[in-house]
Specification:
By secondary structure, this protein is α/β, with parallel strands linked by helices. It is built from 17 helices and 19 strands. The chain binds ligand NPW, adenosine-5'-diphosphate (ADP) and potassium ion (K).
Length: 519
Amino acid sequence: MSVELDLDRIIVSAAEMSAIETRLFDAGFPVAALMEKVAGRIAQWIQHWLSQQTPNPPHLGVLVGPGHNGGDALVVARELWFQGYPISIYRPLDKAKPLTQAHFDYATSLGIPILDRWQDLQDCQVIVDGLFGFGQTRPIEGKLADLLTWVNQQPQQRLSIDIPSGIHTDTGEVLGVAFQADVTLCLGLWKRGLFQDAALDVLGEVQRLDFDIPWADVAAVLGPVPQWQRITPESARSALPLPRPQFTHKYQQGQLLLIAGSRQYGGAASLAALGARASGVGMLTLAVPESLQPLLNQQVPEALVLACPETPQGAIAQLPRDCDLNRYDAIALGPGLTQQTPTLLEQTLQIDSPLVLDADGLNLLAADSNWQGGEANITPWRSSPLILTPHPGEFRRLFPHLSAPHPAEAAQQAASQSGALVVLKGARVVIARPDGSLAINPESTPALARGGSGDVLTGLMAGLVAIAACQKRAIAPLVHSAVWWHAQGALRAQQQRGVLGVDAWTLSQTLPLVVAGQV
Ligand SMILES: NC(=O)C1=CN([C@@H]2O[C@H](COP(=O)(O)OP(=O)(O)OC[C@H]3O[C@@H](n4cnc5c(N)ncnc54)[C@H](OP(=O)(O)O)[C@@H]3O)[C@@H](O)[C@H]2O)[C@@H](O)CC1
Ligand SMILES: Nc1ncnc2c1ncn2[C@@H]1O[C@H](COP(=O)(O)OP(=O)(O)O)[C@@H](O)[C@H]1O
Ligand SMILES: [K+]
């Protein structure tokens, strides 16, 4: 028996969803019964949603496609009709699967208006998209494209059943044109396309409606540890350091060495240090060019600041002679570093403790002859985790030979071939482990699209990793937590100050509030 995982954590491809669904049907659950159950839950959700907006049932326009997504839409239309909602149905294609046709015939017999022209949907207050559901790969063309283009220009609220029509279920690509949803109700299990950057601007608010899929059927298709997972509040929280025992001291709460900064990029070192502060790490040591020491001493007074000899351009020339890299539980290298001193990378890679590389740490790695474009597995070099946190540009430099077109698959290939833990940054950060598993952060904000926010993440992540390493706990779950809390910090700061108010320093000051509330 495998350990039952919260279904909210699982992300499936269209083929996997279909295989899971087939198991339910093969076991005897009638297709029509499942549609009735699922659509009943959608109708309830919509009713609750609309009742919060207006006391009078608004007029719903329902787009009905030929498959079971259209069948769901018809059951929703019927149930809401019975509840007193004015409904109009528009069906752009004549063909229909038998169950969908039966629901259409019944809706017609009830007297629910069937529109001949989509333009008549303009009298509705809400438009429901039941055109196409999971499994979409074909482009939206001709009349359907015109319909969706028209719908997207209307002022009504738009709700999509399962996945917006026109979105590729796995890659999230817009297949020509897509229904621009304000709300998407994903059915049963999260679909991959809902987490791909390409789809984010089409989905609106996304909710999952459960319909009691047995874990045994999920595990039979996905295996006992599903490869694609979503970070959830529970998983992020459960990985955080345990409440501190009374009898402890700073060296039992993680020692982190952060090697960062240059005269040109001094702020990156302080932002990463402030991110590390938010992790609660027991002892933070900063190695910076000596000219930055006074600044860092002032900004992060609790840190031990090692003044490093510097190059004429103000980069770290070498670490201080008495700096013993072996004493740290984790090392982070990169923010604001410049690429002048490759020996910093060589030295830190040799140390057998978790190493977080960001920014110029990654650029140094990309240029290292042993790295070979990420194709030579690092496992023979080192046994402790190597954690890479590239943005897409850095990722391309690190893995120039990878051809995967989508971030999730690209990160997965990169981690498998290199043996590193790859944190590919973007609107939805993807964390890929060398064993092929993937975690995706589902909640974030474009407020983070701003210089310096990645530096804060590096510090926070490295601090949590240092605590975990010191306490001999697994590292990867803390990497997930760091990505989650970084985004939650931004969301909290955004609530208080708006999207444009989330500068990296503000983010670093908000992080301790969200992380501390959990430990
Ligand atoms: N999974 C579950 O557990 C449950 C699933 N349920 C529901 O079923 C939905 C999936 O239903 P589904 O498989 O019938 O697919 P759906 O998209 O409705 O129709 C496919 C039809 O559309 C056509 N077509 C597609 N693209 C097109 C295009 N661009 N342009 C033109 N035509 C296009 C396609 O044509 P074909 O490609 O075959 O020629 C085929 O005829 C799912 O999302 C959920 O709502 C729930 O009821 C119960 C629980
Ligand atoms: N549109 C977006 N939505 C959510 N998060 C974003 C978005 N754009 C960037 N981010 C996040 O902001 C951070 C930017 O990091 P990075 O590019 O390294 O910036 P910097 O080097 O300036 O600190 C990453 O954590 C990334 O995931
Ligand atoms: K849909």
